[in-house]
């Protein structure tokens, strides 16, 4: 979830991260996109509320829409609050959209959201990536590599203590 301040409240500059993206997918190419939001959604994101875990993007009629991006209603929003889950339009260049569309159709790739953050502390950006789903044995291999790395670090730490 990012670094926290002294009082354990997340800072507005810390990004929302899709932690399962690297585990479930092989991320190939990244794109930074703007996102169309309402005012209460931005306020909710500033207070570090949101979930990218099952988030993916679809291309419809030459436009990219983000699906399953959960932004809970702003607590002080009143009657004008937004729905928690709805398709949200991503703002990408036309060349990028055609490149992504070609990759998803020809190569069988998917488009998933990896991060959501504030750029220059005012613009909400979403980092999307074209990705290839991992097989079960690929996931096991990643877990083994991670465990081996931890084991090596422990051994080095013990050796330095002596």
From TrEMBL:
One of its GO terms (cellular component) is cytosol. SUPFAM superfamilies: Small protein B (SmpB) (SSF74982). The keyword Cytoplasm applies. Keywords: Cytoplasm, RNA-binding. Pfam families: SmpB (PF01668). Its main location: cytoplasm. It is found in: Cytoplasm. One of its GO terms (molecular function) is RNA binding. GO terms for biological process: trans-translation; trans-translation-dependent protein tagging. Belongs to the SmpB family. Required for rescue of stalled ribosomes mediated by trans-translation. Binds to transfer-messenger RNA (tmRNA), required for stable association of tmRNA with ribosomes. tmRNA and SmpB together mimic tRNA shape, replacing the anticodon stem-loop with SmpB. tmRNA is encoded by the ssrA gene; the 2 termini fold to resemble tRNA(Ala) and it encodes a 'tag peptide', a short internal open reading frame. During trans-translation Ala-aminoacylated tmRNA acts like a tRNA, entering the A-site of stalled ribosomes, displacing the stalled mRNA. This is SsrA-binding protein. The lineage of its organism: Bacteria, Pseudomonadati, Spirochaetota, Spirochaetia, Leptospirales.
